[in-house]
Design brief:
Elements: H1 6-19, H2 33-38, E1 51-54, H3 58-69, E2 75-79, H4 116-131, H5 137-151, E3 155-157, E4 160-167, E5 175-181, E6 186-191, E7 194-196, E8 204-206, H6 210-213, E9 221-223, E10 238-242, H7 246-257, E11 262-266, H8 277-280, H9 284-289, H10 295-308, H11 314-321, E12 326-329, E13 336-340, E14 343-347, E15 353-355, E16 357-360, E17 364-366, H12 384-387, H13 397-400, E18 425-427, H14 433-436, H15 446-475, H16 483-493
Parallel strand pairs: 1-2, 1-7, 2-3, 7-18, 9-16, 10-11, 10-16, 11-12
Antiparallel strand pairs: 4-5, 5-6, 8-17, 13-14, 14-15
Helix pairs in contact: 3-15, 7-11
Length: about 500
Amino acid sequence: MPSDSLEALNARVQRDLSYLAYPAKPWVLDFDVARLRALGVDAEPEAVLHCAIVGGGQFGLTIAHGLRRECVDRVRVFEKNPRGLEGPWMTFGRMKMLRTPKDPTGHDLGNASLTFRAWYEAQHGAEGWDQLFRISRPDWQAYLGWYREVTGVDMVNEVEVTAVEPWPSAADCQLFRLTVRGTDRIDTVWARTVVFSGGAEASGGHVVPDFISEHLPTSLYAHTSDWPIDFRRFEGQRIGLLGSGAAAFDAAIAALEAGAREAVLCFRRPALPRTNPRRWMEFAGFLAHYPELPDDQRWAYMQELYRIGQPPPVPTFDRAVSLPGFVMKASTPWLAVREDAGQVLVDTPQGPERFDFVFAATGAFVDLAQRPEFAGLLPYAALWADRHVPAPSQAEPRLGRFPYLGRFGEFTEKTPGCAPWLDHLFTTTRGATLSMGPSAASNSNIKYTAPRVISGVTRALFLDDAPEHGRRFATANHDELAPDKLQATMGHAA
């Protein structure tokens, strides 16, 4: 039996949070009613969020909790998926276990009782932790659900933020107006700062290549990030997958375990990548200080990652190659596809291939223009293409579309002075990786990226209110000693 229990851990978390509460003084100032009405805002001061967080996965939860620890009171997370399905873990993520080692921390923000290890040992004991190789997806999702409960994060599920606009205008932004769409209504939410934490696809998305989508009916293809997909439909079928990344392996495994006859990975490279440079990057100096590197060095790191690619984790590779029917075909790009007698006929340099169904394992892309929630800031926000011209040997057009962020993960101006309010908007999505680090959107680097964003939000809120804080400081009564006590003491001394 575990030496601890989840109930005991819950109590310990609350005790630890009380020990770590300093300073506990509320400090974010509210707009008064008159100011709101002058701005055309028909809301009460307490309805204006200090921070709105778009996306309720691991980053959204951590930042929300961190802001509450910094006494930023009105923080709300908006999540489009139902409760328990935040993030990829129980949706399009099909890996058996997380691809990172089991020990990264960061969600805890320095509180050991909030770590995954503490949660796991409370249920399985120290021996269970020692025997654990990597974290399963269901366990990770359950941990994040527990984290939400025990920290009291304010999250609303099944709502989607479709627009974030400077208000009352881009020329005089004092608030942000969020359009939030639920299942049966559309609401307006007002916020002073916004953090975009929607995950891997929330700064662009995924797309099936045109030569597939334009020549096949939707019944014959999907992207590996599509969800839901009932893999039982592939029983007895031959499945083709374009790509060689971890998602391709995960989908192939899922299809074969559901009874597919064969799953064939086709990819352009002459061989599967063997090295994973991201593991090299997982040391404190790099993770903590990558954002301070000069632009050319950050670009060089990311361009090299694009060039090298990334193999699947060893457990994923071993599982795939152990399954009958798993096939890899290197130097086999797909040149053209077409439907033929209810199947997919694929032309490759190695000859034709015939499949019953195909997956595009072509990953996610970064392009803020594809996301409606960024439309209000995109004309003013700098992209890397606006700030950095790489050497010809390091040219990579995809990187140019990444947002050029400041050291706190905040958006920056395309033209100096055009939109100073951009430093109130932050992101931890895939688009942040070039600016904040190649692991900035994963749990490998949450320990360093989340505190940066938290500091950026509190910085923006404090600097906004600094004149009023200064006025209150100048007019406040700072007496430490009661006047009568001091006078009596002085008289006694005389």
